Amino acid sequence: MLPSEPGRTLVLSCAALAGDIRAVTATPGWEHVDFEYLPANFHNRPEKIVPAVQEVLETRSDDYERILIGYGDCGTGGHLDRLLLHHPKAERMPGDHCYAFFSGLDEWQAEFEGELGTFFVTDYLVRHQDALIFGALGLTDHPELRDMYFGNYTRVLWISQNPTPELAEAAQQCANRLNLRLDQSNVGRGLLESRILELKGTAA
Known about the structure:
This protein is α/β, with parallel strands linked by helices. It has helices spanning 18-24, 49-60, 79-84, 100-103, 105-114, 123-127, 129-135, 146-150, 165-177, 190-201; strands at 9-14, 33-38, 66-70, 90-92, 118-121, 155-160, 181-186. It folds into two domains: 9-99 and 189-201, Rossmann fold (3-Layer(aba) Sandwich); 105-186, no CATH class. Helix 1 links the parallel strand 1 (9-14) and strand 2. The longest helix is centred in the C-terminal third of the chain and has 13 residues, at 165-177. The model has no long low-confidence stretch (mean pLDDT 89).
């Protein structure tokens, strides 16, 4: 592959953000930006994030002027940031977790500290709860594991981007299956949208 022209940007993110990124970029003017997504099930396997990001950076960095990493720390224990120290073209979104991309850093921290037993879900996780929550954690086949995973949790907080009656019903079902109460915070796309739109404004 020949190097891309100067000014091209790669957005590399979790596939759980793909739908929201596409919604933000569904207009002309994104010809200078490419998007790639890593598997959403890394949400439950954060040890896979850094090697996957590293592989992309080592094979694609020459093709781009800048690379935006659509992850927070996301459970990598600082290893993602240490990797990016060796790749000056790359920067990640601020914050400890990608949930904060939607709610904003301050609001996410306030919700987390205000009730430590909070299990956060987004529209994507609500929509794919069977695979990414119950299936990935083994709760579908072994519901008795619920107390081991969620015994210290007190609520599910649905930070919704584009709530619909169908998603609201699914979010309530998720909370019921976990035997937790459901709270909702309708935050839209927040920091994610503003950061992605910056890329459009800095086109070469």
